[in-house]
Design goal:
Order of helices and strands: EHEEEEHHHHHHHHHHHH
Number of helices: 13
Radius of gyration: 23 Å
Shape: globular
Number of domains: 1
Largest sheet: 5 strands, antiparallel
Strand order of the largest sheet: 1-5-4-3-2
Number of strands: 5
Structural class: mainly alpha
Helix content: 55-70%
């Protein structure tokens, strides 16, 4: 433990807060990763004995403190290969490792399905963009909407339509195709407001809204001190939701004015990328907590109270520099003492002995994530 450093919980930016990593080692679960000045990743681990404190540890120190699963060793190797750290690039690395089956068959199938859905949704986003552009140019999209076409026929018609749009905008067809493909790739994680099928980040916002309401209801009916933890987690979720809704509104307004594709595309691309990236950071860490809370919806009260302590421990505060509150706005010392009294650890941190039952619970949750 000598190489670990303690840390308060007031990061100024999302980058300082780090990216949530779905490790399967219980003590590492949802640890946050951020690059050092040298570019190597370091990990922020929630306090081993409860509360909202953090430890900063390099990877090389972890085997001396705990038993690390094979999945986590392979995931760390994959993270090292990333050229850029963001919630999206980390997610891709996580899914690639999960698809190998090292976290179990169910998790592997879930990862493969998610990767296929991602590819399909990006294609749907691009197709929707083309349809909306045709409508904007007062051109008939009926031919593109015909049923029974093969993939190659659809691609040919899309390219022809983009060529017509490019001519009207005095853009070469290749440039028009490139702009649409670029914008579709950027916006696919959220999805266009014109598309009936929601993108994953837009769905995540909706799921967090549902979970916040569930936490509020639970806190209002639980008469133990743990209800204070539920109030804190619900308030933390609200902070993320408030900023996310603002970002979504801005992004949707940009996407309703698609004529900018033929205009100052660099400005449009930069603005869309900023909005989507911020939404990724705002939702980072929440999908696991949502599934964790859902997993005890039918469990005895004691299990729900214990899980609430885990939600408190892992709830991602919005950094002050990103619009969040100062930690002093919360009575974290009192809340930390409550959480410690209800703590259920995945392993004994004094020995580092691996709790395989806890590992299996985490792997089961991974199978429900996307």
């Amino acid at each position: 433990m000598s190489q670990a450093k303690s840390l308060d919980i007031s990061p100024g930016t999302f980058g300082e807060r780090g990216i949530s990593i779905p490790f399967t080692t219980p003590m590492l679960s949802q640890a946050r990763m951020r690059p050092t000045r040298q570019g190597e990743p370091e990990f922020l681990l929630p306090s081993f004995n409860g509360g909202k404190g953090m430890y900063i540890m390099p990877w090389r120190s972890l085997p001396a403190v705990m038993t690390v699963t094979l999945h986590d060793r392979l995931l760390y190797d994959a993270l090292l290969e990333l050229k850029q750290y963001s919630p999206d690039t980390v997610r891709q690395a996580v899914l690639a490792v999960q698809a190998t089956g090292v976290a179990g068959g169910d998790a592997s199938l879930a990862a493969e399905k998610t990767l296929a859905l991602d590819a399909g949704y990006q294609a749907l986003t691009q197709f929707t963009l083309v349809i909306e552009l045709l409508k904007l140019a007062r051109m008939d999209p009926a031919e593109l909407l015909a049923t029974g076409m093969t993939g190659s026929e659809s691609q040919r018609l899309v390219r022809a339509a983009l060529g017509q749009l490019g001519q009207r905008a005095n853009l070469p067809v290749e440039e028009m195709v490139s702009r649409v493909e670029t914008l579709a790739t950027l916006i696919a994680p959220v999805g266009l407001p014109q598309c009936q099928q929601l993108g994953r980040l837009r769905m995540a916002v909706g799921e967090l809204e549902r979970t916040r309401a569930s936490l509020q209801r639970w806190g209002a009916t639980d008469f133990s001190e743990v209800s204070q933890l539920a109030d804190f987690v619900a308030e933390t979720a609200k902070a993320a939701l408030d900023i996310s809704r603002d970002r979504l509104a801005r992004l949707d307004n940009r996407c309703r004015d698609l004529g900018a594709i033929a205009g100052d595309f660099r400005a449009l691309r930069t603005a869309v990328a900023e909005d989507v990236t911020r939404l990724g950071w705002l939702m980072d860490g929440w999908p696991f907590l949502i599934r964790l809370w859902d997993s005890v919806s039918d469990s005895p009260l004691e299990a729900q109270q214990s899980t609430m302590g885990e939600l408190f421990r892992l709830a991602p505060l919005i950094p002050v520099g990103e619009g969040g509150k100062e930690p002093s706005a919360y009575d974290l010392e009192v809340l930390g003492k409550i959480q410690t009294r209800w703590l259920r650890m995945g392993e004994d941190w004094r020995t580092g002995a691996l709790d395989m039952a806890a590992v299996m619970r985490i792997e089961a949750l991974k199978a429900t994530l996307s």
